[in-house]
Write the structure tokens for this entry.
Amino acid sequence: MSLKLSTSARYRRTFGIRGVSEAVVKWICFLCALVSVLTTIGIITVLISQSIPFFQEVSPAEFFSGTVWQPTPEPGKFGILPLIVGTLIITVGAGLFAVPLGLLSAIFLSEYAPLKLRNFLKPTLELLAGIPTVVYGYFGLFFVTPLLRHVLPQIQSSNALSGAIVVGIMILPLVSSLCEDAISAVPRALREGAYGLGATKMEVTTKIVVPGALSGIMASFILALSRALGETMAVTLAAGSNPTLAFNPAKAIETMTAYIVSTSKGDAGVGTVRYNSIFAVGITLFGFTMVMNLVATRLVKKFRQVYS
Amino acid sequence: MIVDIAARKRLARRKRADRIFQTLCFFAASIGVLILVLFLYKILVDGMGRLSLTFIRSSLSSRPGKTGIWPAIAGSAYVMALTTAIAVPTGIAAAIYLEEFNTRKSRLSEFIQLNIANLAGVPSIVYGMLGLAVFVRWLSFRESVLSGALTMSLLILPMVIIVTQEALRAVPKGYRDGSLALGSTYWQAIFHQVLPSAAPGIFTGIILSISRAIGETAPLIVVGAAAYVAGAPQRVSDHYTVLPIKIFDWAGDAKEGFNQVAATAILVLMIALLVLNSAAIYLRARSRLRR
């Protein structure tokens, strides 16, 4: 049904004042929908315009290839590689934790679990997704790290490993529910065909269902990793704020998001290079997540065409 | 029947593999539950000791034994109330435009739709930087409740729009046709027929968006919510702090005893979330009963 509003002269003659107020309401609704477009334009404009003053002081080449991030004392060194490496350590670590577990639990929920168990497990996983990220940070600092200390006695109180684990826990429900959506979109007939040939449930799952849902599963991995990349509070608490290029999971690191938070709550004066650097870091972070989200959307689109 | 020992063995092996795989999947699925239980246990053990009415009603202090949490609770409530007042009408109106006024799916509305989906994937801290540049500095709202609420509104707007659209889509087409056939205008059909029957779905979605926003910390730190304020904010121009920022501040404080206070603040936050989510579940169940 088309509810398209006609604001033609004839319509207005027929409906009088009602026709005019209809048009006004439609315009108000349109403006509200436009707010989201303005937000996107705002984000891009702000990130670019605010990082220009920074890039006048520090050349982009130096920024993107420098290996030392040392904002204080003035004039600091601004090579973003340690922050990017820190972010990637957390993202990859979280992925190593959440991707296999999430995929297996999605398989359990959609292929194996009896209805009653499923009705219990699914809402519980959703509860895990509803816990605020700062609470995950607390959990990493006061539960995961003390636990890790039994194995690695020299571990620092904030460390990359514990950060990666809590972020992994955080994205686990996301991986699981997105994978389940992808898996349940595989047509039933494909499973029945394989069962008819005598395959066991495991064979149906690993050889028919998972390959059939592969692009959706990949998309869910990428979306979850992009969430891990932009995650802030849990990593600031659990992984620390020590920008190094060290690949030691027992040591504190700093992610891009953690740097933005610690700088904006600190005492950096407005207009200093250090203050402007958060926007340059922000635009890098934004670029990373946008690319990942675009790839995921592509994959989902491709995947929809296969079965519809 | 041909007795083929090799084939039987193969079958037994395949069945065993299947059982092992099933157990593996079961453990993967239960890890989430196990972690949740550990989580709640840890928070309860650490935080229960300090939870009391005095803690909830007292103001902040730099001594872990004396501090309360009232300014943070009031700040969270103030920011969230204002955020709801801004984001909910805007989000519902935007969803109405996209679902009801634009069913022919013009290229513009498709673009807006794509844009909303993309915004939902932007890290929350980036919204904080937008708020810092636009609300705090450019419009000079300073580090006020208003700046915080506007930033949070932009953050939850995509979510509010998406859940409202889903609720509107679930309303049977006949409701609109019936109303229009009786001579109503489009807006009358939407306002008197479509919106009321989509209301439970919209409310549920909005409550879930707000409970997501209550726990958000990063954007508010960037737009300058303080870690310490003397009292509860009175006006929209006042400085403020919120519960998750206090949790962050206390959890990161090395001083002995502050991690217990942080756990107690987490308990307070989780209780608030529990109340909100129960309200959402109740609304959903009630709307199912009526149908």
Summary: Residues 253 and 259 of chain B are 8 Å apart (CA to CA). The radius of gyration of chain B is 25 Å.
